[in-house]
Each structure stands twice: as C-alpha cells, then as structure tokens.
Write a structure and sequence with these properties.
By secondary structure, the protein is of the alpha/beta class. The protein has a single domain, classed as Rossmann fold, CATH 3.40.50.620. The protein is 36% helix and 11% strand. It contains eight helices and five strands; from the N terminus they run βαβαβααβααβαα. α1 links the parallel β1 and β2. α1 crosses α7 and α7 packs across α8. The radius of gyration is 17 Å and the shape is globular.
Length: 233
C-alpha cells in the first residue's frame, strides 16, 4: 500500500468538503471520488470540482452511475423534496431524499479504486448527529462495510487491511463547520441544497438547507450560501 495516499468521497457538500480539508491538512495525498449518478442537479458536482481545486487535491475522479434507473428517491426520481420541516420532523424516520443504498454503492466503487491505486484508507463525510436520518450514515454501517471490505478484496486477503474512516461521524453540524473554518475551508464553494431553483440558488427550505443554516448559526459564523428563500422553519 502507498503510505499517506487516501481516497475521500467528495460530493461537493459541506461534510465531504470538510473531510477532505481535514485529511489534506494531515499531509495526505488525496484522491477525491465524486459521482454523477443522474441526481436532480449537477451543481454539487461543480461544487466538488471547485473544492478539489481549492484544496489542491492530488486527483479528482468523477464516475458515472445512473441511479435514476432505480429511482425511489426525491433526488433521483420525480418525487417532491420535503420543505419547511422542523428540526424534530427532520429527525423522524427516513425521508424521501434517501437514495437507496447510495453510500454502499459509492463505497464499493471507492473500494475498487483503492485496490487499483494501492490505498488503505477510504474517508467518507458521514455524520450521525445533525443529519436527515439516513441509515447509511451510522457508525454501525461504517463498521460493517469495513468488515466487508476486508473480506471481499484481493488487497485485504493478501494482508493489507482497508479502513473506512468517518472523522465527522460524532460531530454536530456546528462542530464540523468550526473545524473546516479553522482549516481555512471556503464554504462558499460547497453546495448542500436538495432542490435549487433555475438560477442555481439554494432553496433555503429543504432539510439539507435547514441543517446547514442551523449549523452556521450555532457555530456563530455567517453562511456564505445564496438562498432563494431565507425561511428557516
């Protein structure tokens, strides 16, 4: 395995960008991995490109997967994105913005890239506190996938163990933002909205926008995002 070379899943959102900034600050050579999965908009991929350039990452790969053929999510099918939900409502159940098995699929691709690139550590910006209740953002999922990775790969069988790391897993959104801000991460380059308008402005009302604004407010920092609506709840 190549020392100090890692893979980071980079969506273009706040959490994945912070994860990339943390790993870059630790002196790692970063391969950023993003996915064009026929999501509702391509703005997040443009954000991922900007973040990769901003952090001067070593390599940025964008892989194409058409998850719209499967559907089942407001991010990949003609399903309305929930708006103006309270913090309590966001924490209840699994919302329609959950993309079936998305992190499992993304990590599987990352695992394949890791074998080819001789990388032992794969980073994901999963967070289990201020999030929308996705089952594939929990510590149990990360641990289970790591076990799978070390059963299913030639690399692991030959003695080089693979680790799935989620440095933000137990942080609040405010703590994540403070961490990235301390590292000089430009959050204006990131994009979190599930349902931007035709001009590319964040809606300000979906779960992701609400959690983002809440995080910046609790961190005592200004959210640089341009919102089409300033409604918080």
């Amino acid at each position: 395995m190549t020392l100090n070379k890692v893979i980071v899943l980079l969506s273009g959102g706040l959490d994945s960008a912070t994860t990339a900034a943390i790993v870059k600050d630790e002196g790692c050579h970063v391969i950023a991995l993003s996915f064009n999965y026929d999501q509702r908009h391509g703005i997040e991929l443009e954000a991922a490109k900007k973040v990769a350039r901003h952090l001067n990452l070593d390599k940025h790969m964008i892989l194409n997967i058409d998850l719209s053929q499967i559907g089942g999510s407001a991010l990949t099918a003609a399903i309305d994105v929930p708006k103006q939900r309270s913090a309590e409502q966001i924490k209840e159940g699994i919302p329609v913005t959950y993309v079936p098995a998305r992190n499992t699929i993304f990590l599987s691709y990352a695992l394949a890239v890791a074998e080819v690139e001789k990388v032992a550590d794969i980073y994901i910006g999963a967070n289990s506190l201020d999030y929308s209740g996705y089952p594939d953002c929990r510590p149990e999922f990360i641990e289970a996938f790591e076990k799978l990775a070390n059963l299913a790969t030639k690399t692991a069988i030959e003695g080089s163990k693979i680790q799935i790391k989620a440095p933000l897993i137990n942080l609040t959104k405010a703590e994540i933002i403070k961490r990235g801000n301390a590292l000089g991460l430009d959050y204006s380059l990131t994009f979190s909205c599930y349902d931007p308008d035709k001009e590319g402005l964040a809606c300000g009302q979906c779960d992701s926008c609400i959690l983002r604004k809440k995080g910046f407010a609790e961190a005592g920092l200004t959210d640089p995002t341009q919102y089409a609506s300033m409604v918080i709840e």
